[in-house]
UniProtKB/TrEMBL annotation:
Residue ranges occupied by any Response regulatory domain in the UniProt entry: 1-104
Keywords, sorted A to Z: DNA-binding, Phosphoprotein
UniProt superkingdom: Bacteria
Species of the source: Pseudomonas izuensis
Protein name, as recorded: Response regulator transcription factor
Keyword Lipid biosynthesis found: no
Pfam families: GerE, Response_reg
Record flagged with keyword Methyltransferase: no
Length: 193
């Protein structure tokens, strides 16, 4: 309704889940995807997997995410998966037309309400550069540059479980719950080539 009212785009298809979305994208050409995490049980990682799959199959398709989540690591991970705009569900009436305009001009857009939690998260990271121990930092850096946990264990001559613990500890300290989020953090902090 919002899209029709604003006459900014024509809706060419609607999907009710990841499978029907991927089927629809394979048969219906479109210029823009507006989606939720839209998974049963709203599991963040599943939503990110779906976004990752869309990104791999349709690398040039701009994506606008409309979500009720406001936790910063999930939002950052969504941006890392190539999402161009993130809008809080409650603000979509006002902000969806603005996001569509931004994205069509090749610019990112973030809901005003979500910007605050992203800025806070960035400030927390900035105010605590020594959040990770040197070993954890090294493990995250190596993971972000494509090494596996077992390769890192071999490199340091340590057990796989020790390296796994360091990785999990790093994720816990950073408040990150997915590998995608961890890689996004590493990229943003200059740890990935």
């Amino acid at each position: 309704m919002l899209i029709d009212l604003n006459r900014t785009c024509n809706v060419v298809g609607e999907a009710d889940g990841p499978d029907s979305l991927l089927n629809l994208l394979s048969t219906t050409p479109c210029d823009l995807l507006i989606t939720d995490f839209s998974m049963p049980g709203n599991q963040h990682s599943d939503g990110l997997k779906m976004l990752g799959k869309v990104r791999r199959c349709y690398p040039a398709l701009p994506i606008i995410l409309v979500t009720m989540f406001s936790n910063a690591p999930t939002l950052k991970a969504a941006f890392a998966e190539g999402v161009m705009a993130i809008i809080a569900k409650g603000a979509s009436a006002k902000e969806l037309p603005m996001a569509i305009k931004s994205v069509s001009e090749g610019r990112r857009f973030t809901s005003e309400s979500l910007r605050a939690s992203l800025l806070q998260a960035n400030a927390a990271v900035a105010s605590g550069p020594a959040v990770l121990s040197a070993k954890e930092h090294e493990v995250v850096r190596m993971l972000a540059n494509g090494m596996t946990v077992s390769e890192i264990a071999g490199y340091f001559k340590r057990s796989v479980s020790t390296i796994s613990k360091q990785k999990n500890m790093a994720m816990q300290r950073l408040g990150i719950s997915t590998d995608v989020g961890l890689f996004a953090y590493a990229r943003e902090n200059g740890m990935a080539h």
